[in-house]
Amino acid sequence: MPESPHPPHKPGISRREFLSGTGLTAAATALIGPGETLGQADKAKAIATPGFGPKPVACELTVNGTRITVQIEPRVTLLDCLRHYMDVTGPKRVCDRGTCGACTVLLNGKPIYACTMLALEAQGKNIETPESLYQDGQLHRVPAAFAQYDAQQCGFCTPGFVMAMKGCFDRNPKATPAEVERCLAGNICRCGTYQQMRHALRSLCQKGG
Ligand code: FES
Ligand code: FES
User: Fold this and answer.
1) Residue 162, ligand 1, Cβ within 6 A
2) How, if at all, do strands 126-128 and 57-63 pair?
3) CA-CA distance, 136 to 145, in Å (whole number)?
4) What is the CA radius of gyration of the chain?
5) 196 lines ligand 2 (CB under 6 A)
6) How remote is the CA of residue 200 from the centroid of ligand 2, in Å?
7) Residue 147: which residues within 8 A CB-CB, separation 6 or more?
8) What is the tens place of the pLDDT at every residue in 96-125?
9) pLDDT band at 46 (very low <50, low <70, confident <90, very high)
10) Which of the listed residues 5, 29, 108, 132 has the most CB atoms within 10 Å of its CB?
11) Among the atoms of ligand 1, which is closest to the Cα of residue 101?
């Protein structure tokens, strides 16, 4: 049998624990000015102060009106928390760096990129995802218009566009097509279905949002 390339795990301090400890020491040092030194007692106290992560901590999010609590590492983004820990897969992961808008969700009614926010920062806020747009067998009028006017091809960008558009109409039900288009400035469709989206948008504006 070939030898495993990975040596067996040896008990002791892990790399992560080591980094966590050194991070605290560095943070403690950064808190004092140049040339100053911490007393032994201060240093021991700073190092003993419990850090925030990297081990999992409890995170409670209100997603589409339901409170969900999971254990996550503090570094987990809202997008990954929704998709991988809460099975809420409506927001899509495309660029994962705040440029495409596929991950758009509404946070207290405001569209945000879920890939650029930590899940822990979203605690205590009302999060709306594309899943909220299908209730009791009824499709919300925005995605219904997208379907009617064939405003999607691959569909990865579509949930983000739909959420951004819904957020816009929620804030101003009488928004004009030009105003709604400005709300969609942070969303990109690589398939180029903009014309069909415009048709859907015009139909929504004629109906009053
Ligand atoms: S996946 Fe978040 S902006 Fe692209
Ligand atoms: S439908 Fe393909 S990226 Fe928008």
Assistant:
1) no
2) parallel
3) 18
4) 23
5) no
6) 15
7) 139
8) 999 999 999 999 999 999 999 999 999 999
9) low
10) 132
11) 3
Mutate to test the pocket of ligand 2, among 184, 189, 195, 197 (most ligand atoms within 8 A of CB): 189
Nearest to 163 by CA among 102, 84, 87: 102
| pTM tops 0.70, yes or no | yes
Q: Is 117 in the pocket of ligand 1 (CB under 6 A)?
A: no
Name which residue sits closest to atom 3 of ligand 1, judged by CA: 98
pLDDT digits (tens, 9 = 90+) for 172-183: 999 999 999 999
**Residue that has been written with the tokens 């007393």 in this structure:** 39
Say if residues 138 and 69 touch (Cβ distance below 8 Å). no
Please list, in sequence order, all residues whose beta carbon lies within 8 angstroms of the beta carbon of residue 118, skipping any fewer than 6 positions away: 74, 75, 76, 77, 78
Contacts for 124 with CB less than 8 Å, ≥ 6 apart: 62
Residues in the chain: 209
